[in-house]
Specification:
The complex is a heterotrimer of chains A (253), B (257) and C (212). Chain A has 253 residues and is mainly alpha-helical. Chain A is 72% helix and 4% strand. A two-stranded antiparallel sheet of chain A has the order 1-2. In chain A, strand 1 and strand 2 form a beta hairpin. In chain A, helix 2 runs antiparallel to helix 5, helix 3 packs parallel to helix 5 and helix 6 runs antiparallel to helix 7. In chain B, helix 3 runs parallel beside helix 5 and helix 4 packs across helix 5. Chain B has a domain of 122 residues: P-loop containing nucleotide triphosphate hydrolases (Rossmann fold). Chain B has a six-stranded mixed sheet, with helices on both faces. Chain B has a four-stranded antiparallel sheet with strand order 2-1-4-5, covered by helices on one side. Chain B has 257 residues and is of the alpha/beta class. Chain C has 212 residues and is an all-alpha fold. Chain C has one domain: Arp2/3 complex 21 kDa subunit ARPC3, CATH 1.10.1760. Chain C is 73% helix and 3% strand. A two-stranded antiparallel sheet of chain C has the order 1-2. Classes of the chains: A mainly alpha (253), B alpha/beta (257), C mainly alpha (212). Chains in contact: A-B, A-C. At the A-C interface, helix 2, helix 4, helix 5, helix 7 and helix 8 of A face helix 1, helix 2, strand 1, helix 4 and helix 8 of C.
């Protein structure tokens, strides 16, 4: 399956081969452990572990850089503002603005955590097809209502967005302006949104009929074939210990 | 395909006195009765709103008729039953192709029939091969062309090995090549099929029997050439004689049966 | 606006996950109480996707353009499916676009989803007030304005009380107040847009507004 995020799921690396459920639990535990870390002396270890995991995944660095750009903006804003408002120990005075020590330290932790968590997240979701991830969540206990909704959501997202584009084009050809603001324009866009909702609602009726025609709701639902080998479980154990280590380290050091 | 190859006694489909009304629209189907024997290929023609889709939805147990009986393979069909013996191919493949990947979608039906994982996989391969779409198995559903979507939605239905397959406007929106592929598939099918279509040429090529439906009633039932060649009858019910049946000074059409 | 990873302390993100689990459990419980829960799943899923796409519509607000949140209307149309829907939407946004964090999925869901549920309850009062176009428009405006407004306040409170800045209580309160005030024009646009959409839906497909 190939969508933007799934472009590297067919590489071969130990992380790609790791059983999806174990990978999900292990890497999410690591992500949460990282979010706990605040101690400056632990930060380098966190970055090293992150780099190691990323290297093992064989994902290209360009991929990571591209993906970090968008969420990076918000973090950048925080990084630029915080050193000037947080803390009382002034390190450098630049006219009316004082650079504070506590702020600088917080900013280092925030940046390091952000980088590490996002990178591990990219490894988690970039080495397994998205649908397989959802299937493993289902296998781990996600209610079927949510899993079914997720699959249908994903399936029709692109159709509906194509529909929107077509309707926008049609409206633009009839004079809708997306540059000026007007009540008339707002109303037209509201009707556009409303039409998208109505169409999806009506399509859902047919989809439901199609689903029950092919047995949706019948008891004999075959289960997903996910099997964890001992190697997968050992890897999970190791990652959980690393995660635990970071939490302990942050508290004790 | 192993479907429909076994001999069955009696009609595959027997409908008598079928009536249906929607809450706001009365008499969508009025006293429809017919029998379809094994192996028949029946074309159903008629104007929009004649009740063709509604008819299909009632005999596949999705809608509840207000009166009348439906028997499929000798067993009565009641609203809400799960009948994998009856397959319905929707007019819009996007409505029917609701799983994100082709493989998952074709496996959906067999998966709900309590089959083992290996059996399900075998059915998926079988069904996709039958429609010539095996290479599409790992594609996301929204990356398919109209023709490919049509083929995959048919595969999803065939994977349940139905005895009776209902096709609702199967050639709508298809390009010439895909349409030809569809016609060949229909001609090669061993199941009993009912095809509702405005594509009268397709019906001529595929079907051995035609039903003309208008305003919820069966107006005519019989030989395709006789019915579709009858100018008055066709025009009285919003149809036109298909091009092939219009007399040509230089005959160039072929009929396949 | 979704909170990214790295900023909030684990106490907040963990509470967010706990709250999300509880609310989701409650929603699923309520959904399963219906006569035929499966029947509404395709509707809920497709409407969620539609809302997702609709929130991508550019509303020109010179000099730039904005995207709407529409969580109020989502609550109104999806009812008990609203919270799971928002959770799913946020999950996909986090995974596909890195919009919003993974550790903050829970807290982001609460920020967007709780107001949606509240709007669902409030909109039901329309059954008492009357389903005419004026009423629908008024309640629609309320749902749009309130949905986004409450989300904005929640977001600001959570951010400002957790960013490691030693601001005293009154400074914090002023900051929250001022920033909320700055959002009022956007809230008004959401309100107006939601009102217009609600009236449209009332005319074309009133069943959508009843809430699954």
């Amino acid at each position: 399956m190939n969508i933007g995020l799934d472009q590297y799921v067919y590489l071969a690396s130990p992380l790609h081969r790791w059983e999806p459920r174990c990978k999900l639990i292990g890497l999410m535990a690591l992500i949460f452990a990282f979010s706990f870390v605040g101690n400056l002396s632990i930060l380098p270890a966190m970055l090293v572990v992150t780099a190691a995991v990323f290297a093992v995944s064989k994902l290209p660095v360009s991929f990571m850089l591209r993906r970090l750009r968008y969420p990076g903006f918000f973090i950048l804003a925080v990084i630029l503002i915080l050193p000037f408002v947080s803390g009382s120990t002034v390190v450098l005075s630049m006219g009316p603005l004082d650079l504070r020590q506590e702020g600088l330290i917080s900013v280092l932790s925030i940046a390091a955590r952000f980088l590490s968590i996002l990178t591990i997240g990219l490894v988690l979701f970039g080495t397994t097809p998205l649908l397989t991830t959802i299937k493993s969540m289902r296998a781990l206990g996600l209610p079927s209502i949510l899993a079914d909704m997720a699959f249908l959501f994903f399936r029709y997202l692109f159709e509906i967005s194509d529909e929107l584009r077509r309707m926008e084009t049609a409206m633009r050809l009839r004079g809708l302006s997306l540059r000026r603001f007007s009540i008339h324009g707002l109303r037209t866009l509201a009707w556009l949104g409303g039409s998208i909702l109505v169409r999806s609602y009506e399509r859902a009726d047919s989809v439901y009929k199609a689903m029950i025609l092919r047995g949706y709701g019948q008891a004999g639902r075959s289960q997903y074939d996910l099997r964890a080998s001992s190697r997968d479980l050992i890897a999970l154990g190791v990652i959980l210990m690393v995660a635990g280590g970071f939490i302990a380290g942050d508290i004790l050091v | 395909m192993a479907t429909g190859a076994e001999q069955i006694d009696g009609p595959v489909l027997a409908v008598s006195g079928l009536c249906f009304s929607y809450p706001g629209v009365a008499d969508v189907l009025q006293e429809v009765s017919l029998k379809v024997m094994p192996g028949e290929r029946v074309g159903i023609i008629g104007p929009n709103g004649a009740g063709k889709t509604t008819f299909f939805l009632t005999i596949s147990a999705v809608l509840k008729p207000s009166a009348g009986d439906i028997f499929v393979l000798g067993k009565q069909v009641l609203n809400g039953d799960f009948c994998p013996e009856v397959g319905l191919v929707f007019q819009n493949p996007d409505d029917q192709l609701f799983c994100p990947s082709v493989r998952d979608d074709v496996a959906f039906g067999p998966g709900n029939m309590g089959l083992s994982k290996d059996e399900v996989e075998a059915r998926v391969t079988e069904a996709l091969s039958a429609v010539g779409g095996l290479e599409l198995a790992d594609r996301p559903a929204h990356h398919l062309s109209e023709g490919e979507k049509r083929m995959v939605s048919i595969a999803g239905v065939l994977a349940m090995r139905p005895r009776l397959v209902l096709y609702d406007e199967p050639s709508a929106n298809l390009d010439i090549r895909s349409r030809r592929r569809l016609i060949r598939l229909l001609q090669a099918s061993k199941e009993t099929i009912l095809i509702a279509s405005h594509d009268l040429e397709l019906i001529l090529e595929v079907c051995s029997r035609v039903l003309l439906i208008d305003e919820g009633r069966v107006i005519a039932d019989g030989d395709p050439i006789e019915i579709m060649g009858d100018d008055e009858l066709m025009e009285a019910h919003g149809q036109e004689k298909p091009h092939s049946l219009v007399p040509h000074p230089v005959p160039h059409q072929k009929h396949f049966r | 606006m979704h909170i990214p990873d790295g900023i909030l302390p684990i106490s907040v993100t963990a509470s967010g996950y706990a709250a999300t689990t509880a609310i989701t459990w409650y929603s699923v419980h309520k959904i399963n109480q219906k006569e035929n829960p499966r029947e509404d799943i395709p509707k809920a899923a497709l409407l969620t996707a539609a809302f997702f796409v609709a929130s991508l519509i550019h509303i020109p607000v010179p000099p730039t353009s904005v995207h709407l949140v529409l969580n109020g209307l989502l609550g109104v149309t999806l009812g008990y499916f609203a919270f799971p829907a928002i959770l799913i939407g946020l999950f996909f946004q986090a995974v596909m676009f890195q919009h919003g964090g993974l550790t903050t999925l829970g807290i982001n869901a609460v920020i967007m989803g709780l107001p949606a549920l509240v709007c669902f309850y409030i909109f039901r009062l329309r059954n008492i007030a009357g389903k005419g176009e004026r009423m629908t428009g008024a309640f629609g405006f309320l749902a749009g304005f309130g949905g986004v407004g409450v989300s904005a306040v929640l977001l600001l409170v959570i951010l400002l009380t957790n960013i490691p800045a030693e601001l005293d209580a009154s400074v914090e309160r002023t900051a929250i107040f001022t920033l909320t005030l700055a959002h009022v024009p956007l809230m008004a646009i959401e309100g107006a847009f939601t009102a217009l959409m609600a009236v449209f839906l009332q005319r074309v497909r009133p069943e959508i507004l009843v809430g699954a």
